[in-house]
Write a structure and sequence with these properties.
Layout: E1 6-7, E2 10-11, H1 21-31, H2 36-43, H3 61-73, E3 81-87, H4 93-106, E4 112-117, H5 120-137, H6 141-144, E5 145-147, E6 151-154, E7 164-167, E8 187-193, H7 200-206, E9 216-223, H8 231-234, E10 246-250, H9 260-274, H10 277-285, H11 297-302
Parallel strand pairs: 3-9, 3-10, 4-7, 4-8, 8-9
Antiparallel strand pairs: 1-2, 5-6, 6-7
Helix pairs in contact: 4-5, 9-10
Length: 307
């Protein structure tokens, strides 16, 4: 299993057979501590026959770019890394969230983090389920870490409280669940999945965790841009908080794994059955952020007035 990892151009199998594999693993984890893409390429069985990743050579291009920006951002701890990603469906967003979570957690002792999503159902059945998939694909994860129903923790009993990622459903009536998430001098990870639907009060409370100095602070927010107001919208161009965020807008149709044929069948069906209206709305979901207020009650309900 160790030959999946490249050690400065040579595989582990080429090293001394007497080397302790755990020591080699710890050395490698230290090397990729600030390099999420290197971690992702070494931790999972890309292209390995008989695995779920047999047909894949690595993350999607947009995800590679994101990981590289995080690497560059970690060259200095003076500023928090804040990444906002708006996209349509089918771009491997949940996959990328899971991979970045595992990198952040596994490579930095006493890393702390919180993951939330638009609904508890989304959080449990999609976001956390995807994390479980990639946790199981990581060849060394079970040796040192435990994935529970609502937390990812170190197996070291002395660090169970300090080295952990928690899944926390948000509640407008209990924003304090996101208060006090400090981890000074270490690494803090915050992820908002389907962030467009998360209430502003949660964002405002969570911001308190990003005031620590000399700390690696990473905040990733992503989702379908379904609302033309709110903090997720304000992360992007023209928004009040845009200056704090690096933003990316991804058209699903540009991503290699997107099912173009299925999308075309839907378009034709909608055009034939509904005079093109549903087709137009669905096409808009593949595009970018809303820039105007809704023009009609239907758009207001669906939040689908786009540029």
């Amino acid at each position: 299993m160790l030959d999946r990892i490249s050690w400065h151009g040579s595989s582990v199998s080429e090293r001394s057979p007497s080397s302790n594999w755990q020591e080699q693993l710890l050395e490698w984890l230290a090397e990729v501590r600030d390099d999420p893409l290197a971690f992702v390429m070494g931790a999972f069985p890309w292209g390995e026959v008989g695995t779920q990743l047999e047909a894949y050579s690595g993350p999607m291009p947009w995800a590679r770019d994101l990981m590289e920006r995080i690497r560059l951002g970690l060259l200095s701890a003076d500023e928090a890394i804040q990444e906002a990603i708006a996209s349509g469906h089918g771009i491997a967003k949940s996959t990328t969230v899971a991979q970045i979570t595992l990198w952040a957690f596994m490579t930095f002792p006493d890393c702390r983090g919180v993951i939330t999503a638009n609904t508890e159902t989304q959080l449990k059945t999609k976001t956390w389920a995807e994390l479980g998939k990639w946790f199981n694909l990581c060849w060394f994860s079970r040796e040192f870490f435990t994935l529970n129903a609502t937390s990812l923790v170190s197996k070291d009993p002395e660090r169970e409280r300090t080295w952990r990622i928690d899944m926390i459903p948000w509640s407008k009536t209990n924003p304090q669940a996101f208060a006090g998430l400090h981890n000074k001098g270490k690494r803090m990870l915050m992820i908002f999945d389907e962030a467009s639907e998360i209430e502003d009060i949660i964002w405002e409370t969570a911001e308190g965790a990003f005031s620590d100095r000399d700390t690696q602070l990473i905040w990733l927010v992503c989702g379908n841009p379904t609302r033309n107001t709110g903090r997720f919208r304000e992360c992007f161009d023209g928004g009040q908080h845009h200056s704090f965020w690096h933003t990316t807008q991804i058209d699903s149709r540009t991503v290699p794994i997107y099912n173009q044929k299925r999308a075309e069948r839907r378009r034709r069906t909608d055009t034939a059955s509904n005079g093109g209206r549903r087709c137009a709305l669905r096409a808009q979901q593949l595009r970018y952020l809303p820039t105007q207020r809704p023009r009609c009650p239907h758009h207001r309900e669906k939040g689908l007035q786009w540029n």
